[in-house]
């Protein structure tokens, strides 16, 4: 296991990564990811952002439909440590539900029950060494295992349907990139906070960090509501350093 710092977060926390190159579950994880991720991308594309340009395109369509006005608020939030805090059994149940909801009774010849059991192996057979001690991961999935991202996406698909989406007006934008969410809202800021706090308390493992306002960053874009007129500019996180390494340097 090794760690990658998150300099854009307060206190520069570390992201734990399991090196699964030689892990016993590597091929199972890759197989599941190649089988399930295309299905997720296909069925959830309408509520998924790809990049900043995609965000601006959605906002332009929102404006053209007449839903954007001077009172429109932007909401962004992300889930704290979603990969490593996934409740394992719930995530497996959500995987089965996702496949059934989208009529995928068999995937690459495998039944839903078989896929769930393979996913259980990937989640529950994660062993690693840290400080000369062996550990087994009891909560979440291994960052470094291919299927963890797809399973996190499916968990978020279910979570947002239970918490946020039903309480937003149907015409509002609500789109997500893994655990980062952008939404519009024409309710009061107090109502929005009430909604987000309810979502924050919905599950003990899932906690939000959110921003509400008429000017918010998302991806590499800063969007502003200037009295009903959309403005945007390039956004760089404060931790991003404008440093270019010479091509002569032997640097990855």
The amount of beta strand, in percent, is: 15-25%
In this structure, how is the largest beta sheet organized? 4 strands, antiparallel
Order of helices and strands: EEHHEHHEEHEEHEEHEEEE
Any idea what the radius of gyration is? 20 Å
Q: What's the structural domain tally?
A: 1
Shape: globular
**Proportion in helices:** 25-40%
- Strands of the widest sheet, in order across it, are 8-9-3-10
InterPro entries: RT_dom
Organism: Rotaria sordida
Domain Reverse transcriptase: 1-234
Protein name: Reverse transcriptase domain-containing protein
Description:
The protein has 252 residues and is an alpha+beta fold. It has one domain. Helices cover 37% and strands 23% of the residues. It has 7 helices and 13 strands. The strands form 5 sheets. A 4-stranded antiparallel beta sheet has the order 8-9-3-10, covered by helices on one side. A 3-stranded antiparallel beta sheet has the order 11-12-13, covered by helices on one side. Strands 1-2 form a two-stranded antiparallel sheet. Strand 11 and strand 12 form a beta hairpin. Helix 1 (26-43) crosses helix 5. The longest helix is centred in the first third of the chain and has 18 residues, at 26-43. The protein is globular. The two termini are 20 Å apart. The mean pLDDT is 89.
Core attributes:
four-stranded antiparallel β-sheet, alpha+beta, 252 residues, 37% helix, Reverse transcriptase domain-containing protein, three-stranded antiparallel β-sheet
Topology readout:
Blueprint: E1 2-5, E2 14-17, H1 26-43, H2 52-64, E3 73-79, H3 82-85, H4 88-101, E4 106-107, E5 110-111, H5 112-124, E6 127-130, E7 133-136, H6 146-163, E8 174-177, E9 180-185, H7 189-200, E10 208-213, E11 215-218, E12 221-226, E13 229-234
Antiparallel strand pairs: 1-2, 3-9, 3-10, 4-5, 6-7, 8-9, 11-12, 12-13
Helix pairs in contact: 1-5, 1-6, 4-5, 4-6
Domain Reverse transcriptase: 1-234
Protein name: Reverse transcriptase domain-containing protein
InterPro entries: RT_dom
